[in-house]
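Q: My labmate handed me this sequence with no annotations at all. I'd like to see what the chain might look like in three dimensions before we decide whether it's worth expressing. Could you predict it?
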Amino acid sequence: MGLVVIFALVTILGIFGFIRSLKEKNLLGAFFAFGTFAVFGWFAVMTIIHHGFPTTH
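A: Here is what I predict for the chain of 57 residues:
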């Protein structure tokens, strides 16, 4: 369960970073923030689907 929480927090920070980078017209920062959002968001969703929430033992 802790892994899902960490992945979700990184995903949320990636969204905020992406929006902030677009406002400042920093395209390289927006690219990496979107990559962070996509990768960690995918990991969070797939971990929830595979292991369930809350996790079962």
